[in-house]
């Protein structure tokens, strides 16, 4: 068994305390063991860089433009609607890949 030699004191809000008690009860663990479980078994991803958010914003703006063009194509029938929709779907896939990689 590990030897616990360092004591930590934490302040929790009422809601955080309630959540910790709830998690402890459903896991059937003490509060300290619940925190240890969360500490060792939770996957943490590093925050994405600023460039990630800038890229997502650009992709969203492109998506809005494509969506507007699709509406025009539907109304006038003068644009290749299926190709435009394909591009919109590809853009959405790219956005999802970026989110999966960074978040």
Tell me the layout of helices and strands.
Blueprint: H1 14-27, H2 31-41, H3 50-76, H4 81-102
Count of individual helical segments: 4
Beta content: under 5%
Total domain units = 2
**From N to C, what is the helix and strand string?**
HHHH
Distance between the termini: 35 Å
Backbone shape? elongated
Structural class: mainly alpha
Largest sheet: none
Percent of residues in helices: over 70%
Q: Can you count the beta strands?
A: 0
Summed over residues and divided by their number, the pLDDT gives a mean of 84
Low-confidence stretches: none
Overall radius of gyration: 24 Å
Textual characterization of the structure:
Helices cover 72% and strands 0% of the residues. It is an all-alpha fold. The protein folds into two domains: 13-44; 50-102. Helix 1 (14-27) packs across helix 2 and helix 3 (50-76) runs antiparallel to helix 4 (81-102).
Properties at a glance:
mainly alpha, 4 helices, 0% strand
Task: Provide a compact summary of the structure.
The chain is an all-alpha fold and 103 residues long.
């Amino acid at each position: 068994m590990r030897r616990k030699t360092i004591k930590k004191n934490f302040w929790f809000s009422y809601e955080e305390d309630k959540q910790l008690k709830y998690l402890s009860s459903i896991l059937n663990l003490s509060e300290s063991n619940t925190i240890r479980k969360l500490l060792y078994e939770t996957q943490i991803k590093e925050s994405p860089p600023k460039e990630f958010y800038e890229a997502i914003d650009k992709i969203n703006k492109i998506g809005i433009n494509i969506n507007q063009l699709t509406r025009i194509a539907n109304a006038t029938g003068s644009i290749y609607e299926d190709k435009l929709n394909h591009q919109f779907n590809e853009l959405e896939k790219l956005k999802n890949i970026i989110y999966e990689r960074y978040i």
